[in-house]
TrEMBL record:
GO molecular function: DNA-binding transcription factor activity; RNA binding; translation elongation factor activity
Residue ranges of domain Transcription factor NusA N-terminal in the record: 6-125
Role, per record: Participates in both transcription termination and antitermination.
The protein's name in its UniProt record: Transcription termination/antitermination protein NusA
Main subcellular location of this protein, as a coarse class: cytoplasm
Location(s), subcellular: Cytoplasm
Transcription factor NusA first KH domain mapped to chain residues: 202-279
GO BP term (any one): transcription antitermination
Residues annotated as domain NusA-like second KH: 284-344
Keywords (A to Z) from UniProt: Cytoplasm, Elongation factor, Protein biosynthesis, RNA-binding, Transcription, Transcription antitermination, Transcription regulation, Transcription termination
Length: 410
């Protein structure tokens, strides 16, 4: 049959598109009805019969027989003489059904049909992919490195879907080779025109949370709950965990013997240092735990200002602040409180902002970025540490230290 041959030629690419035949036939009917509207002005009097099992399609045009010379609408009516060429016993007023061969539509119309069909199938595919990945946002996904660009890595999954891993969503130590598998979470799905752009992230806190679910059975089973995750990708993270079963030690279960359980997660994240702490509603205890590994001597909480003054022994201050100020910054993000660190036994300290007449504001901001916002907190650190962590010139840091020391000498 001519129709069957044509349908097969139209659908020859369907296997590459992962579209089932029934859906393809529905799209075909829609495409052909549009073609009929263009050629005849209306498709109301056409029956389209689809056989998805055989991949066959028939088009029948229904018209009313009228006397010769009385046709007003050629699409709806047919002259008696023409009707009797189809069946010799037709009479005026009867309905005539005549099969329309696709080839009768003309070569141009068939080419247009094919283009329209391809467009509709792409539209269908894009809608399906968009919905599929919208439902996967926040979930871990694995795909293979296909192409490495300067600002992004392009991945392909098993179904050939393209996934983008932008530079800003990569851990600083990430290094990819073509063909290797990469894990991350589906961060978002954007529509660029009609095409979905699937974006992966390895830096989102949710990625670390999902790794806990995937790697630690008690978290997956719901026996342990991950309450909050904060991280500086590739450097340090803090994870607060809780359990409603008093018999379970949530931190011990997550870390495992000698770190055996968390080791795989640390390796996946480029040796990111992960602190796992017990969550508690006791705010004082929670802030103390958040500043681990530093040992807090005492603290004063201002709940209204969301600020806390933490007092530590001099040797614990650097631990509380941590390399690059990461520890104190993450502790603040985990608890939701701005943390000010003070040496125990030193009654007076001065905010760095008090020195704004002598120290430029942008210099003070550099110290604040690493968690040092008082004179004593700066003076507690070595000169080399301050130069390295703030990216300030040694001469500038030396001048700041001189100014601060003078304050306390006075």
């Amino acid at each position: 049959m001519e129709n069957l041959a044509l349908i097969e030629s139209f659908s020859e690419f369907k296997d590459d598109k992962l579209i089932d035949r029934v859906t393809l036939m529905a799209i075909l009917e829609d495409v052909f009805r549009n073609a009929l509207k263009k050629k005849f002005g209306s498709d109301d009097n056409f029956d389209i019969i689809i056989n998805p099992d055989k991949g066959d399609l028939e088009i029948w045009r229904n018209r009313i027989v009228v006397a010769d010379g009385e046709v007003e609408d050629p699409n709806q009516e047919i002259e008696l003489t023409d009707a009797r060429k189809i069946e010799p016993d037709f009479e005026v007023g009867e309905d005539v059904s005549e099969e329309v061969k696709l080839i009768d539509l003309g070569r141009r119309a068939i080419l247009a049909l094919r283009q329209n069909l391809i467009s509709k199938i792409h539209e269908h595919d894009n809608t399906t992919i968009y919905k599929q990945f919208k439902d996967l946002v926040g979930d871990i996904y694995t795909a293979e490195v296909h192409h490495i660009r300067h600002r992004a890595v392009i991945l392909l999954d098993d179904e050939g879907n393209e996934i983008v891993l932008p530079k800003e969503n990569q851990i600083p130590s990430d290094f990819f080779r073509k063909g290797e598998n990469v894990r991350g979470i589906i961060d978002r799905v954007d529509l660029k025109g009609n095409k979905p752009m699937i974006v992966m992230s390895r830096t989102a806190p949710e990625f670390l949370e999902k790794l806990f679910e995937q790697e630690i059975p008690e978290v997956f089973d719901g026996l342990i709950t991950v309450k909050k995750v904060v991280r500086i990708p590739g450097e340090k993270a803090k994870v607060a965990v809780d359990s409603y079963d008093d018999r379970i030690d949530p931190v011990g279960a997550c870390v495992g013997m000698k770190g055996s359980r968390i080791h795989g997660i640390v390796r996946e994240l480029g040796n990111e240092n992960i602190d796992v702490i017990n969550y508690t509603t006791n705010l004082q205890l929670y802030i103390t735990r958040a500043l681990s590994p530093a040992r807090v001597s005492s603290l004063k909480i201002d709940e209204e200002a969301k600020r806390v003054e933490v007092f530590l022994k001099p040797e614990e201050v650097s631990k509380a602040i941590g390399k690059g100020g990461f520890n104190i910054r993450l502790a603040g993000q985990l608890t939701g409180y701005e943390i000010d660190v003070y040496r125990e036994g030193v009654e007076e300290d001065v905010e760095l902002t008090e020195f704004s007449d002598e120290i430029e504001a942008w210099v003070i901001e550099e110290f604040k970025k690493i968690g040092l916002d008082t004179a004593k907190s700066v003076l507690d650190q070595e000169l080399d540490f301050l130069v390295k962590q703030t990216d300030l010139e040694e001469e500038t840091v030396g001048e700041v230290i001189r100014i601060l020391k003078e304050e306390f000498e006075d």
